[in-house]
Design goal:
Layout (H helix, E strand, L loop, with lengths): L3 H7 L15 E5 L2 E2 H12 L2 E4 L2 H4 L2 E2 L2 E5 L1 H8 L5 E7 L2 E6 L35 E2 L6 E2 L7 E5 L5 H4 L3 H7 L3 E3 L9 E3 L15 E5 L2 E2 L14 E8 L3 H4 L6 E7 L8 E11 L5 E13 L3 E12 L4 E2 L10 E15 L2 E14 L5 E2 L6 E2 L7 E16 L2 E23 L2 H6 L4 E25 L5 E21 L2 E26 L2 E19 L4 H7 L6 E15 L5 E12 L2 E5 L2 E5 L2 E13 L3 E13 L2 E5 L5 E5 L1 E17 L2 E17 L1 H10 L14 E12 L4 E16 L9 E16 L2 E8 L22 E2 L6 E9 L1
Parallel strand pairs: 3-7, 13-16, 20-24
Antiparallel strand pairs: 1-5, 2-4, 6-7, 8-9, 10-15, 11-12, 13-14, 15-16, 17-18, 17-46, 18-19, 19-21, 21-22, 22-25, 23-45, 25-26, 26-27, 27-28, 28-29, 29-30, 30-31, 31-32, 32-35, 33-34, 35-36, 36-39, 37-38, 39-40, 40-41, 41-42, 42-43, 43-44, 44-46
C-alpha cells in the first residue's frame, strides 16, 4: 500500500480508477478517519483524482460522509472543521491544502447537501498532474511514469477473498510474466520473464526474490504460497534486480505489501465460503480480520486468522481411493504499528502458515487425466513463520528505513520409487530395481536479514538511495528411504551463506524529461557446507576433498537506466542490469559435489503509455546467463544440483488496459520467450550418456514460449447501499519442458485457464459467486509427480476441474 506520509510530500496522490462522467452524484460512504485514508476511499467511490502535498495535512481527521454526492460536495462536507480545504484544479481533479484561515472563524454546521462550493472557486495556478501509481519496490518512491523498467502493480482492492485463498496461483493468473511449477502449494518455485533454472527445490537460491513488506521470505526455500488475504498491493518488478536486491533476483522480485493497522478506527471483516468441484469433493474456507486502535492516532493492532480446505479430485486406481489430493491450510498474521510523531513509524509483525497435502497432485496419462496408480501415499507439508521489525523516520523528502527479519521454513516431502539393490549393481545396470521404496526429504531453512537505507524521493522520479544489508541463510536437507518397513538414512547436506552488502543508486535529470539512473552493489559472501549422515564417507571425501569446506565470493554489480518522457503520458526506457547467485554443495546420490555461482546480464528497452482511457506497457530484453545452476535427474533417478552450462533468454512482453466506459475495463497481455542452453557443461553430457544418448533438449525449463491473458472488470452502483462487480479472465499457457536434458525433456503446458466472479455488496454484507476452469479443461500444468518415476511413467498435473464457490462476507 502507498505510504501516505511519503506520498503527501512526493506528489499529489491519484486514485487510479476511471472517473464518472460530469458532475453525476454517486453513492458515497466514507467513515470519519484520517485525511489520507478518506481521500483514497472517496477517490475509489467517485472516480475523482484527489491529491495533497503537505505531510501534515495527511493525518488530519475528517468527517464521515454518507449519501449521494458529487466528489466536490463530498469533499466540502468531509473537510468541515478539519484545518484543510480543497481546490478544483481540473475536471474531477482536486488539490487539498492547509486552510490558513482555520481558527479565525467559528465553525458553521455542515449542510445536509449543498451545491459544490469547490466548483465556485476560481482555478489557481496550474499544478503538476497527480501521480497515478508510485512504485515502492524500488526502495524509494518512484512515479511509475519515471520508472525505467517493466513493473506490474496489483491493487489489493482487486484481490477478492476467492482469489486471495489461492495464494501464488492468483498472482500467476493475474500476471503473465510470472509462472510457477505445480508440485503443490508450499513446494513450488516461481519464475519471472524466462529466467528459470529447474523444477526442483534444492540448495540453489531461487531466481525470484520474494518479499513480504520489507522482509525477504525465501532464499533456498520454495515459494510458501502465503494466502493473499488483507493485502494492500502486490508489485512484480521484472529482473534482474541485482543492484537493489542482490543475490537471487535474477528473474525479478515479487513484493506483497500487507495492509497496515489503521490508528483511528475499529474495523474488520469476516468471511466464509464453500466450493463444489466437479469430479471431486467440496472444499471450505473462512477467516476474519480485526483492526483495533489501542491509542488513537498512536498505536494500532491488526489481526488476521484463516483456514482453508481445498478439494481433492485425483483418484488412485491401485489403492482404490478417490479424491486423494486434499490440501488444508491454516494461518494468520499479527501486525502492530506505533506512530509517536507524524514522521516516525514503527511496525512489528508476525506471519505464520501451515500447508498440509494429503497426497501428491499428479495423475498419469495411462489411467486417465484425473487418475493414477501408486502403491503409497506421497504427502507433503510446509510450515512457514516470519517475524519482522521495520523502523522509519522521515525528514520531508528524505526517509531512513531500518528492517530486521527472521524467516523459518520447514518442507517435508515423500516420493514413491524403487529401491536399488546396491550401488555396484546400479553402476552397472541403472534400471535394475527391487522393491517399492518410499523416499523422504526434509528441508529446514532459517534466514536472518537486516538492512538500513537512506533515500530521497522527488515527484519527478529523481533522488538517491544508499544502504547496507546483512543476510545469513542456513539450510539442512535430510533424506531417507524406507523399504518394507526398513528405514535407512541417505546422505544429506548442510549449507550456510553469510552475506554482507553495500549498495547505492542515484537518479538525475540532465535535461528536461530525461532521467538517468546509475547504481552499484558490492557483495561479499562466505559459503560453507558439510555432509550429513554420510553413507560412504571415504568415497565422498576422496571424490571431493573440499566438500566440507568454506570459501568466499565477492561480486560487483553495476546498473544503468534511462527514462525519457516526451509527454506527460508517454515514457521510453532502457536499462542494463546484472544479477548473481553464489555457489554451494549438493548431493548426487551418496556422493557430494560442489557447484559454482552463476551470473546474468540483461539489456532491456521498452515504453509505457498512461492515458485517461488507455494504458500500455511493452518491453524487449536479452539476457546472457553464465554457469547456470540447475537441479537435474542423475542416472539413478535422484535429483541433484550442478552447473549445466551457459545460456541466453530473449523475451518480449506487452500488456495494457482500456476503459471505454465508466466502470468497465478490459485488460490484455502477451509474453513471448525463447531460451537456450548454448554451451553445455560436461556433467550434463555425462548424465545424458547414461540415459538416452546425445542430448536433444537444451531449452530452459518451465517457461512457455507464449503466454497470453484477456480479462475484464465491470462495476456499477445499484443504489445508495448496493453495488455490483463482475470480473473474468482467460489465460493461455504455451508449451514448455520440465527441465534440461532428455530425462527432464518432458513436454508440458499448452492449456487454457479461465475464471469469473460476481460480487454484490449490500450495505455491510458482500455476496460472491466465483467459477474457475469454466470449460472443465484438463491440460498439463506440470509433468512431474515423483522424480524417481520420471523415466517410466507419463506423469501430468491437470488443472483443478470446473469449480464453483459461493462466499459471504461481513465488513464493519
Amino acid at each position: 500500500m502507498l505510504r501516505s506520509a511519503s506520498l503527501a510530500v512526493v506528489a499529489a496522490t491519484l486514485i487510479p480508477f476511471p472517473a464518472l462522467a460530469g458532475e453525476e452524484r454517486t453513492a458515497i460512504d466514507v467513515p470519519a478517519t484520517r485525511l489520507d485514508h478518506a481521500v483514497r476511499s472517496l477517490g475509489r467511490q467517485s472516480g475523482a483524482s484527489i491529491g495533497f502535498r503537505d505531510a501534515k495535512v495527511a493525518k488530519l481527521r475528517v468527517r464521515a460522509v454518507r449519501g449521494r454526492y458529487t466528489a466536490g460536495e463530498a469533499l466540502y462536507l468531509m473537510l468541515q472543521d478539519s484545518g484543510a480545504r480543497a481546490r478544483r484544479v481540473a475536471a474531477d481533479t482536486f488539490l487539498i491544502e492547509a486552510d490558513p484561515d482555520f481558527g479565525k472563524r467559528s465553525a458553521a454546521p455542515a449542510p445536509t447537501r449543498t451545491p459544490s462550493r469547490i466548483a465556485e472557486v476560481a482555478p489557481a495556478a496550474p499544478v503538476p498532474p497527480p501521480v497515478e501509481i508510485v512504485v515502492t519496490g524500488t526502495k524509494r518512491d518512484i512515479p511509475i511514469a519515471a520508472y525505467p523498467g517493466m513493473v506490474h502493480v496489483i491493487d489489493g482492492d482487486r484481490i477478492s477473498v476467492a482469489s486471495g485463498r489461492m495464494g501464488s496461483d492468483a498472482l500467476e493468473s493475474a500476471t503473465p510474466s510470472v509462472v510457477s511449477t505445480h508440485l503443490g502449494p508450499g513446494r513450488n518455485k516461481l519464475f519471472i520473464r524466462g529466467i528459470a533454472d529447474s523444477s526442483f527445490v534444492g540448495p540453489t537460491q531461487s531466481t525470484v526474490g520474494q518479499y513480504w513488506g520489507n522482509s525477504r521470505i525465501t532464499y533456498s526455500a520454495p515459494d510458501p504460497s502465503l494466502k493473499l488475504y488483507d493485502v494492500g498491493r502486490i508489485e512484480v518488478l521484472e529482473g534482474p534486480q541485482g543492484t537493489l536486491y542482490g543475490a537471487g533476483s535474477l528473474g525479478g522480485i515479487v513484493r506483497v505489501v500487507p495492509r497496515a493497522p489503521q490508528l483511528d478506527q475499529v474495523s474488520g471483516s469476516t468471511w466464509a465460503g464453500v466450493e463444489a468441484v466437479q469430479h471431486g469433493k467440496p472444499g471450505y474456507d473462512g477467516g476474519a480480520v480485526l483492526n483495533l486502535p489501542i491509542v488513537t492516532d498512536r498505536l494500532g493492532l491488526r489481526v488476521l486468522a484463516f483456514g482453508t480446505e481445498e478439494n481433492g479430485y485425483i483418484d488412485d486406481v491401485k489403492r482404490k481411493l478417490d479424491d486423494v489430493n486434499d490440501v488444508s491450510s491454516i494461518g494468520g498474521r499479527i501486525a502492530l504499528r506505533y506512530e509517536p510523531t507524524t514522521d516516525i513509524t514503527v511496525d512489528l509483525g508476525v506471519v505464520g502458515q501451515r500447508i498440509d497435502g494429503a497426497d501428491s497432485q499428479y495423475a498419469e496419462r495411462t489411467f486417465g487425466r484425473l487418475k493414477r496408480s501408486s502403491n503409497l501415499a506421497q504427502p507433503f507439508r510446509n510450515d512457514f513463520l516470519l517475524s519482522d521489525l521495520v523502523l522509519r523516520k522521515s525528514w520531508g523528502e528524505v526517509e531512513l528505513t531500518a528492517s530486521f527479519g527472521l524467516a523459518h521454513q520447514e518442507v517435508t516431502e515423500e516420493f514413491e520409487g524403487r529401491a536399488l539393490r546396491n550401488i555396484a549393481d546400479a553402476a552397472l545396470e541403472p534400471k535394475r530395481l527391487a522393491e517399492v521404496a518410499l523416499y523422504s526429504q526434509k528441508n529446514q531453512i532459517d534466514m536472518y536479514t537486516g538492512e538500513i537505507r537512506l533515500a530521497r524521493s522527488a515527484a519527478d522520479g529523481t533522488g538517491w538511495l544508499i544502504g547496507a544489508s546483512v543476510l545469513r541463510n542456513e539450510s539442512e536437507v535430510d533424506r531417507s528411504v524406507e523399504v518394507e518397513e526398513e528405514f535407512n538414512a541417505l546422505t544429506g547436506v548442510r549449507n550456510e551463506v553469510v552475506e554482507g552488502t553495500v549498495y547505492g543508486e542515484m537518479t538525475v535529470a540532465p535535461m528536461p524529461q530525461v532521467n538517468v539512473t546509475f547504481g552499484a552493489r558490492g557483495t561479499a559472501s562466505r559459503i560453507s557446507g558439510a555432509v550429513r549422515d554420510p553413507v560412504l564417507p571415504l568415497l565422498i571425501y576422496e571424490l571431493d576433498p573440499g566438500a566440507k569446506a568454506s570459501r568466499t565470493e565477492s561480486r560487483f554489480l553495476p546498473s544503468l537506466a534511462l527514462a525519457y518522457r516526451p509527454t506527460a503520458t508517454m515514457t521510453f526506457f532502457a536499462r542494463y542490469q546484472e544479477g548473481f547467485r553464489p555457489g554451494g554443495i549438493a548431493i548426487r546420490r551418496e556422493f557430494v559435489q560442489r557447484y559454482d555461482g552463476d551470473r546474468v546480464r540483461t539489456l532491456e528497452a521498452g515504453l509505457r503509455y498512461r492515458g485517461e482511457a488507455i494504458e500500455l506497457e511493452s518491453s524487449v530484453s536479452w539476457t546472457g546467463w553464465r554457469d547456470i545452476q540447475a537441479d537435474i535427474i542423475d542416472g539413478f533417478g535422484f535429483p541433484t544440483t550442478t552447473n549445466v552450462g551457459n545460456g541466453t533468454v530473449r523475451s518480449f512482453g506487452i500488456s495494457g488496459r482500456w476503459r471505454p466506459l465508466p466502470g468497465f475495463e478490459l485488460d490484455g497481455a502477451l509474453y513471448l520467450n525463447r531460451s537456450k542452453v548454448t554451451q553445455r557443461d560436461r556433467i550434463l553430457d555425462q548424465v545424458d550418456s547414461v540415459t538416452t544418448g546425445p542430448a536433444q533438449f537444451n531449452r530452459l525449463p518451465n517457461i512457455a514460449d507464449e503466454t497470453a491473458r484477456l480479462g475484464f472488470t465491470w462495476s456499477t452502483i445499484l443504489s445508495d447501499t448496493r453495488d455490483l462487480e463482475i470480473t473474468g479472465f482467460g489465460r493461455y499457457v504455451g508449451e514448455s519442458v520440465l527441465g534440461i536434458g532428455p530425462i527432464l525433456g518432458k513436454l508440458q503446458g499448452e492449456y487454457i485457464d479461465t475464471g469469473m466472479e460476481a460480487s454484490l455488496r449490500a450495505g455491510p454484507m458482500r455476496y460472491s459467486l466465483s467459477a474457475s476452469n469454466l470449460f472443465d479443461a484438463r491440460g498439463n500444468r506440470f509433468a512431474l509427480g515423483s522424480p524417481f518415476q520420471i523415466r517410466t511413467r507419463e506423469q501430468i498435473t491437470p488443472l483443478q476441474p470446473r469449480s464453483v464457490r459461493f462466499g459471504i462476507q461481513f465488513d464493519f
